[in-house]
Write a structure and sequence with these properties.
- The complex is a heterodimer.
- By secondary structure, chain A is of the alpha/beta class.
- Chain A contains 21 helices and 19 strands.
- Among the domains of chain A are: 4-231, Rossmann fold, CATH 3.40.50.280; 234-360 and 591-630, Transcription Regulator spoIIAA.
- In chain A, strands 2-1-3-4-5-6 form a six-stranded mixed β-sheet, with helices on one face. Chain A has a four-stranded parallel β-sheet with strand order 15-16-17-18. In chain A, strands 10-13-14 form a three-stranded parallel β-sheet, covered by helices on one side.
- The longest helix of chain A is centred in the last third of the chain and has 20 residues, at 416-435.
- The relative contact order of chain A is 0.10.
- Chain B is an alpha+beta fold.
- Chain B has two domains: 2-74, no CATH class; 93-201, Pseudouridine synthase (2-Layer Sandwich), CATH 3.30.2350.
- Chain B has four helices and nine strands; from the N terminus they run αβββαβαββββαβ.
- The chains are: A alpha/beta, B alpha+beta.
- At the A-B interface, helix 1 and helix 9 of A face helix 1 of B.
């Protein structure tokens, strides 16, 4: 609901539908009937934020509690931001149109490091002090969760509470403590102290950090009874876990404009660069019946005619074929299509293809990540060249003619030969097309090779690795370009400058808070967008603050260094990560969770894949996921 | 209110989704990529309120009750869009010749009486020239012939213009062009609140 003042601005900006709310299934409550208001902020545009599943889950969950009203807030695009500033309109929530400073909680989901500047900018636009220490009253409690909360230190000065792990339960517990504190007249420090006792809650203000002369961390000390180690929270029984039967259906087109059904959390694979693969261990699946029922409810309540099965690697869902059978029983008649993103190269079977083929024939996307077999072994991708070619042949025989291949450059131990192999792999896919007799006749093949730059992330076996410098990344990008000979291959790559800044903040410490604060004062926003990002301006700030960004991005850390995130426990043991890192140097792979348990530590939660019965011997011997076969 | 601020494509998508959710047996086109058949005879510009818009939908079942369509569809639409009537399609979309609008104009520093006189002066000109952007760049057009009839009335904090303009696929004039023409003339920047009231055929009968 927007007021007259805002309405006057709407026709002056692009896509005004972003700023009005009023969508189907939006939750409107009476302010008088609720006693806790939560502004759920996504630090990016409406179209990006509305596509995010985590926000949909928590929005519905919070609003299912009668005394809570959770509303949505997105970062206004730069044209709207300018208009709002000029007319002194504070950032408001879409449902009520009330400014975010009216809310008890202001929550952010942190999906990528480059959205930090938007988070601070949104607070600023809402006239909420950005520093936690300057928000002294028991109101406007700033909380944050999501994958980037696994290294909260670069934004520790701004956020009152971080939720570590999955938010479904812990968020509500903290809101309950807030109500009690407010009833009792307790102050904000007391509220924070009480929250710190809840598992999965990290209150950065309750910890002191000391540094060595070389800038590394000397000690990290809790105070006021806060725990020395903060353990993540997670949902153990996915079938009993809350899942919305309803999404807000946007009026304007968003990035992922469809129903999204989560099928499992975590990933069995253990690719060594992948943070999500370690943060969300162990794998916990929903049953086909649960998924089927939830899909149906979602489609019925939203009117979406497409449902996407979401997970980190859909073809690793252990009962994928029975699930697809159940779904296609009704989706065909109701003209609903199913999409299966995040397919692995080795999981694209005929059966799966035939089931989803009735749907639209968009391009296929695979992520071999590295060009050479050696480097794929280093990163534990466990995809072989012949598997990739076999999969492409299957797809070509099924009528597909476009394939997108995703790679990373700058991986540990990478040589220029490995880099050239990215181009060669693209070439092999082109040739596979022409060697597939059943290929679509009269059509040409298009292979897109996409290279992003590797960013070492916390809680991965590569968390100690230096990132390649920007000039080296540029050289590697050029090398791929020069090695591509075919016109059937198009090449694009991710800007190395943004990857550098991402690497700085991904593994940064609290010293970076000053950099963030200055960036906010200077009006930085939308760093994830080429329209706004300017590395030189960031480098100026680093210099003024006397901070060398290369210390965070390009330095090799030793295994015994205290890392800024060492006080957080995501279930995976540091000793396991060290072992995995050493195996990477030896080009040795680690089998996935269903083939063999590698003792990562996640079994301590007592549920999930760690307690599934191991599959039959044949599949173990050959390393082939036979349980997928029809 | 909200639905004024979405584009024609977005409105189309919203209606199709509501139809799908309502499970009203809508006819799908045949062919490689079947899609539900539903069209708007004349798109409504972004920012306009529409109080009597229509949409053509083809059903699979000719006997489906009109009453049921209204109830079912309204249960599936966002609050900014309401279905209030269902009829058989009478005229083809190509028959649309005119559209009537209510334009409310205001400007902080100009009293509404002054805006009324400015409007009157503009509309009584022999020609109203305006630069129109086309695919080949800008060209100057005269929109005066498109003005069928109009009425200007002074309100407390705005000037109201009720106007009928040529509309349809061949000779469409958007009332925003008039607002621009007025702005070009006076140099002021107006707030324009525009509502499309009705569509008509060449005989000025309401479009059905």
């Amino acid at each position: 609901m927007v007021n007259r003042e805002v309405e006057k601005l709407l026709l002056k900006v692009q896509k005004p539908g972003r700023y009005v709310g009023g969508e189907l299934n939006e939750v409107i409550k009476d302010k008088k009937d609720v006693d806790l208001r939560f502004a759920f902020c996504f630090p990016d545009t409406y179209e990006v934020g509305m596509s995010h599943l985590g926000m949909k889950i928590l929005y519905s969950l919070f609003n299912s509690v009668p005394y809570i009203w959770c509303e949505r807030v997105f970062a206004p695009w730069i044209d709207m931001e300018e208009e709002m500033r000029r007319h002194n309109i504070p950032l408001y929530a879409l449902e009520s149109g009330d400014p975010i400073s009216d809310f008890d909680f202001i929550g952010f989901t942190l999906q990528y490091e480059l959205s930090y500047s938007n988070m601070l900018n949104m607070l600023k636009m809402g006239n909420v002090p950005i520093l936690s220490s300057e928000r002294t009253e028991l109101k406007n409690i700033v909380v944050a969760g999501g994958p980037c909360a696994c290294n909260p230190e670069p934004i520790a000065d701004f956020v009152d509470i971080f939720f570590i792990g999955e938010g479904e339960e812990v968020d509500l517990e903290v809101m309950e403590i807030f109500r009690r504190c407010r009833d009792e007249g307790a102050d904000k420090p007391e509220f924070l102290r009480r929250c710190a006792q809840v598992e999965g809650v990290y209150v950065p203000a309750l910890y002191e950090v000391e540094y060595n002369e070389d800038g590394t961390i000397k000690s990290f000390t809790p105070k006021d009874g806060a725990p020395a180690v903060i353990r993540k929270r997670l949902m153990l029984d996915m079938d009993k876990s809350y899942y919305p039967d309803n999404f807000v259906v946007p009026l304007i087109e968003i990035v992922h404009d469809r129903a999204v059904q989560e099928i499992f959390r975590g990933c069995i694979r253990g690719c060594r660069f992948c943070q999500a693969g370690f943060l969300y261990r162990p794998v916990r699946e929903k049953s086909p019946d649960t998924i089927n029922a939830q899909c149906r409810a979602l489609c019925d309540n939203t009117g979406y005619d497409e449902v996407s099965l979401s997970s980190l690697s859909s073809s690793d869902y252990s009962r994928i074929v029975p699930l697809l059978e159940k779904l296609t029983d009704w989706t065909y008649g109701e003209k609903v299509s199913i999409s299966l993103p995040s397919l692995r190269v080795d999981g694209f079977s005929d059966e799966i293809m035939n089931r989803i083929k009735t749907v639209r024939k968009s391009g296929l996307t695979f992520a071999p990540e590295a060009g050479s077999q050696r480097l794929r072994d280093v990163i534990n991708k466990n995809v072989r060249h012949d598997e990739l070619m076999q999969t492409c042949a299957t797809a070509f025989a099924g009528g597909w003619t476009t394939v997108k291949l995703y790679f990373m450059i700058g991986l540990p131990t990478e040589t220029m030969d490995d880099v050239a192999d990215i181009a060669h792999l693209g070439q092999d896919v082109v040739e596979t097309f022409y060697h597939t007799p059943e290929r679509a006749k009269g059509k040409s093949v298009r292979v897109t090779v996409s290279a992003s730059s590797f960013v070492p992330k916390p809680f991965t076996p590569f968390q100690w690795e230096p990132q390649d410098t920007i000039p080296v990344l540029h050289e590697k990008q050029r090398h791929i370009k020069d090695s591509i000979k075919s016109k059937k291959i198009s090449f694009n790559y991710h800007d190395a400058d943004t990857s550098f800044l991402e690497a700085v903040f991904a593994r940064g410490d609290r010293k970076l808070c000053r950099v963030m604060q200055t960036a906010c004062e200077r009006g930085f926003h939308f760093d994830g967008w080429n329209d706004c990002f300017d590395l030189d301006k960031w480098l100026e700030i680093f210099e003024e603050c006397g901070i060398d960004p290369a210390f965070y991005a390009n330095r090799r850390r030793s295994f015994d260094e205290i890392l800024p995130w060492d006080h957080l426990d995501y279930g995976v043991k540091k000793s396991f990560l060290i072992k995995e890192c050493q195996k990477a140097y030896e080009n040795t792979t680690t089998p996935h969770c269903r083939l063999q348990c590698s003792q990562c530590g996640a079994a301590k939660y007592g549920k999930g894949v760690c307690f599934e019965e191991l599959k039959d011997l044949v599949s173990k011997v050959y390393g082939v996921p036979l349980y997928l076969a029809p | 209110m909200e639905c004024r601020y979405i584009s024609h494509l977005d409105l189309n998508r919203t209606m199709l989704r509501a139809l799908h959710k309502s499970k009203i047996p809508i006819w799908h086109t045949e062919g490689f990529n079947p899609h539900p058949f539903a069209t708007f005879p004349l798109p409504l510009s972004l920012g306009f309120r529409g109080v009597n818009e229509c949409m053509d939908v083809k059903l699979e079942d000719d006997d489906y009750s009109f009453e049921e369509i209204i109830t079912k569809l309204n249960a599936c639409l966002p609050r900014g869009i309401r279905v209030f009537d269902v009829t058989e399609a009478v005229m083809k979309a190509g028959k649309i010749a005119y559209a009537s609008f209510t334009v409310k104009l205001s400007e902080e520093k100009t009293p509404s009486s002054a805006i009324c006189s400015e409007l009157e002066a503009l509309l009584s000109q022999d020609e109203i020239l305006i630069e129109k952007k086309s695919k080949k760049g800008f060209k100057t057009v005269d929109i005066k012939p498109a003005v069928q009839s109009y009425e200007i009335s002074e309100r407390f904090d705005f000037a109201q213009l009720d106007i009928m303009l040529s509309a349809g696929s061949t000779d469409n004039v958007n009332p925003n062009l008039l607002v621009t023409a007025l702005q070009n003339k006076t140099g002021a920047e107006y707030e324009a609140d525009i509502t499309r009231n009705d569509l008509y055929n060449a005989e000025k009968e309401p479009f059905r």
